[in-house]
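Run folding on both entries below.
>entry_1
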Amino acid sequence: MFAGQKLLQQSISLFTQIRMVSSSSRGFRVALLQLNVTADKLKNVANAVEHLKQAKLNGCTLAILPECFNSPYNTALFREYSEVIPGGYTCKALSQAAKSNEMYIVGGSIPEICDDKVYNTCTVWDPNGNLIAKHQKVHLFDINIPGGICFKESDALAAGNSLNTFQLGKFKIGLGICYDIRFAEMAAIYRKQGCDMLIYPSAFNMTTGPLHWSLLTRCRAVDNQAFVAVVSPARVNSNYVAWGHSMVVDPWGNILEEATEKDMDLYIDLNFDARENMRQQIPTENQRRTDLYDTFDLKNKV
């Protein structure tokens, strides 16, 4: 590396640290990494690691990868591409990337092999490279739309049985994967657990994407007065064509940033003061008629 390049990287790193310190009490900068996914797992992982490095250089505290970022989204291939967590190749790469870049990483999702079952699983890594959360997709994507799409994840995947969150500083973040976003009760429980943000690595298709992608993301944000991020693979010609359009929505339902269908990264500064202001101005949490209705996490009694 030339001396000038090294000095430039050091300057960027110092600027990043100052930004993170000054904004950490109000929020943080997040990267949404909408990546091309190929049939080459090693290439997919290497590409993700490079984009994570760039996210760090752009001042991000948190980076989010897409659903199935290391493998084709194809039920016939999930077992072939599956790995153990956290000992598999992809997890080791994400752990090292989190540590070397000193950032939080939501590792999209990968096919996980566990007790001879395959799950669609999201991992979360802290700046020390530790695995701090794991979410196995709860709701499997089994749909049949005549003239549109027929897809049945349950042919190859098992469903997860828990809701999962992690802490980023003082902010609590709830996890889901793609089809999980359609189930408002799940998001409502995350709100009851005190989540400030919801993250759904996702891969909507060319039928449901134009109709429901933005609508569902904005609904979950407004319903729960929280930031919501959805991160898709880029659109490529494959067995399953993703809609793309990764986005972040604020608690008012405003789309802060939205990708196109192409391979691209988004960097967004999130200010959680806006969320607090909305919750004070429209205090739905305290106005719910729990004498008439409620939402419960039956497993954890919340």
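>entry_2
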Amino acid sequence: MAAVVLIFDFDKTIIDCDSDDWVVGGLGGAALFGELLPTTSWNFLMDRMMSELHSQGKTIQDISDCLKTVPLHPETISAIKTAYALGCELRIVSDANKFFIETILNQHGLLECFSEINTNPTFIDEYGKLRILPYHDFHSASHGCSNPCPPSMCKGLIIKQIQDLMSSEGKKRIIYIGDGKGDYCASLKLTEEDFMLPRKNFPVWGLITNNPSLLKAEIHEWINAEELHKVIIKVISAALSAEDRTPESISMDRKYQSVSRLPHEAVSQVLRVPH
């Protein structure tokens, strides 16, 4: 079992843009999106935009092709593949949506690195239209969180569910990486054994720095992909180098020394450790 679990946000964390904006802008829907945004919740608006784009003749393939052009920094790719090669479990908790996230990760050869993606579900209806649903059905009931979470998703509730599942699997440490307001609630659920990696000068960083004493987790900020790569490896090393060193953690350290010397393109070939 993995002793370290990395949980990533997606937009402006794994990718350096917003996937919703990328698709809406790339397929010519920015003007309508801007008109509807002031009076429509984001999740419902994205579902509406998929209907509008479909009515304009845009297909699922058009959406997929647009998503495949989303850039992903080589340092981010390397950080994810290195963490996976070191035997860490990787998850995503994001208020984007399943189709967008999986298409982008698959394009960059990263989808297999993640054991679970918690995000807004999607499906393609009988007319070939992409539908986007909320993770929490706020149409029938609110998730009830008082933190600045969007109505479609409380990441704090998701982290609590993950922690509950992990409790029967032995000691694990969470490394959480995010940038937005929605990541703040998740950060408050982390324990003294965990790590929070907020993106500096982004909303979650502002909320945390306003009162850092509210967090139990150790905080490590980052600015860009290069710095994120360094921080992730540093924190993984710290998590695997606790005072009570186990044979497994020593093995992980040795494995990291081997992985860190490999070029980016070779990292994916390192022997995977089962989760």
